[in-house]
Amino acid sequence: MRAPTRVSDETFELTDAAIERDPEYIADITVLWAKRFKSTVRDFMARQGNSYGDVEQDELEERIDRVRDLRDFRFQVIELGSGADEEEVAEIFVRTNSKVVSLNQADFILTLMSVHWEEGRRQIESFCRNAVDPSAKGPSPKNPFLNPTPDQMLRAGVGLAFRRGRLQHVYSILRGKDLDTGDVSEERRTAQFKKLRTAQDEVVDLTNWHEFLKCLSQAGFRQSRMITSESAVIYTYALWLIGKRDFGVNRRLLRATISRWFFMAHTSGRYTSSPETQIESDLSRLSALSLGDATGFCETLDGIVRSTFTGDYWEISLPNRLDTSSARSPVLFAYWAALNVVDAEVLFARLKVRELLDPVSGAPRGIERHHLFPKAHLASRGITSNPKVNAIANMAFVDWAENDEIRAKSPLEYWPVMTAGMPSQAVKRQAEWHALPVGWEQLEYDVFLDRRRSLMAQVIRQGFETLWGAGAEPRSSSLTEIVNLGESQVVEFKATARVNLHTGQVDRKIEHVVVKTVCGFLNGEGGTLFIGIADNGGAVGLDKDLATLRGRGGRDGYELFLRQCLDNGLSSPTAAVVGIAFEEMEGREICVVKVAASGKPVFAKSPGDAIAAEFWVRVGNATKQLHGDDMLTYQAERWS
Fold first, then answer.
1. Which of 465, 567, 581 is nearest to 522 (CA)?
2. pLDDT in tens, 321-346
3. Cα–Cα distance between 541 and 521 in angstroms, integer?
4. Who has the most CB within 10 Å: 45, 224, 509, 633?
């Protein structure tokens, strides 16, 4: 604090040394000078003989004025009576800050912990500090994937303790509130904090933490650069803890199951949009199982993985998602992870990709993503658009020495030279790993990009299927298995596509529901719409819809109706991205509409409106319409 006698009405100085010693000094003497001589700040500076430029003088004058304005600032004060207890103080803090400061639910819960369990809050804060402490020695939470925050570790803890993803519910639970009756009791609050205390001990246990992180390494992820969704890491950790503590899954099986889950969740963006809603849905599926049912735990997670990674996903959705130049795309890092899993070599070298992606390798130019069709070569052919030149499908891992040798040569020039000294089997193996089509160097650029995207998707699939291990080959889920898992980000049930079951009449609004569901899948990760299945998973069949087709019945007529409905209601043709098939369940015919992810935004038309203006996205187990900035942001992040 400044000494009160530093500036007097009689003497003061304005020198660089004085200002550097105490930045507030200038404010005091300037206000004093203006008071004594009724002068401006700028006049005062001139009288002192300082040679500040106009910009510097403007900035100093503004800063001094802001300091002087503090004398007139009106602070709002809330006075609490002496009878207020700790919980009332915490509640006032939460309510006040929720109106003034942008705080999230985790902040409110951490505040509640400060009142009722200060040790617990310090515990997770210490864990997070140690994870980023460069001087930490010995066992610590440090890792190559993320720097955890108290907010994130709290989410893992409440997921384990209460099987909850929405922190709004957790805040109420920890206050001792009965979510059914609304009653609040101290006994209930004490019991809930006891649950959280037990769970948090598991969360911050270093053995658990590092054992879980081995799952990410097994899935092919090597460093934080490859993580685009920290939520996927934290929520997967919660699932790992639940599998270990509540279901008793043995370490080896748990690691294999969770590595597959993380690969799927991160690649598909499962926890990107409305992550709390999605993890709450995932946790509720596990709540239906009996504690200790290790087999049920693993089969439930693997079932969701299979229902997400369908044949259409690998063959259509994934190649479409690879049609981007984003350097932070989760599908790009899925490709990198797959190269690590299959132990691929860098192009034109014997070095392993996994070795050069190791975060502790320390080589500043150890590895580079090289343009297979170099920029200068493409420019000579009139291709200069950055998104096209820097497309994911035009990039490959090349050791920097080889990259320097290639420079701006065309593939026709450098490919035979670079592979001349390599055994033919090595060239073939590297071409497969790096998804190079046969004769790729001779292809037109657009044809090359299209073919390589499909081959990259196959490499990702190969890497992922390796995670199933010997004797546990992946298989397709049956219709019954998928339905039993319920609706999800990639599964939706509709009883009919034409008939309103309440009126028994054809209803165009019902048709629009089908259109917007397909639109949501197209703009999301793809998915499957089952028509003829009620919301509860029971089969109702297609009889009511078929009866309205008037001579165009049967499977062919129903498929024709659906095609016309979708093509008339969507901004893009669906022939290449929507497949329609029929299966039987419980003796009733079901229509299975398989939708691939679209390579561009798709819009739906409102009923009776010829303009396709609705933008729908699949979020969790619901289809959500995005507007304005939310829509533009989503489109930019997904397709730019």
1. 567
2. 999 988 889 999 999 999 999 999 99
3. 22
4. 45
